[in-house]
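note to self: dont lose this again. the chain is below, predicted strucutre after it. 302 aa total, dont forget to put it in the shared folder this time
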Amino acid sequence: MTKTATEIQKIFSDHQKDLAFIIGNGINLSFQDDNISWNDLLLDLWKKHADEPMEEIPKGISFVEFYDALGLQNVTTSGFSTQLQKDVKAKMRNWQPDDAQNLVLNKIKAYNAPILTTNFDDLIPKSMKLSPHRIPNTSFTDHYPWATYYAEKELNSPLDGFAVWYMNGMVKYHRSIKLGLSEYMGNVERARKMTNTNYGHENPELENPWLTNNTWIDIIFNKSLCIFGLSLDETEVFFRWLLIQRAKFFKRFPKYSHKGWYIMKKEDDNPSIIGKKFFLKSVGVEVIEVENYSILYNDIWK
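---
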């Protein structure tokens, strides 16, 4: 369904106390003149670590699969996966934010809503001058720093307000950066234990059937999600799996369900959009189309 900036702003204001935003690399592509991109970063890694020349990622292979193809060429190299993670960290450390993106970020901050990002970089915290924190009394592993966030102040819970959380790993901890399919499956396995334990279906008397674990996973199940700047195609294995689990939870406990919106530029000539819309409808996320990127990254945040 196509909507105007004013109509989308009304959705935000109507659900202001229940909002969380999921942001992908689209915010970098929109505001960075040099077009910081995962595509370019992967090609740089390929040129550094592969013998076969490659000027562009071929059609028909996902970024995750392309990374795994690079890993297969170096499968006998000890510590190669860790080296790639370090290479990614080194490259992203040099990235600098375009503060024009604060038009978007300051509006989200005004809603006091959390941000979850699928990016690894720290451009959002840099541009907003946020500092790292961890939820009190939580365990820590740099492989899965899911209770760690960036904010202006400390929070007692991920649901308490504005902060930036990292779903696929953060550049601060190179071992948290998930690049290949097996690593994303590790994310799924870790999250599966949390969601299975936290559904609370064995105790129907609970005031809220979700038992919090004080990681960003809590936000997925306890907030209405506005997703933008994220392709959310079939390569987004981990996040798509989370949306499926979220939908199952809401069907089991409909009283505690929350809404979801996926905002995207209208693409009438892209046949893959049909499958994406079908998936999102299946997991209870409404697709909202806008006429151009100016509406998506400027008008709705004014």
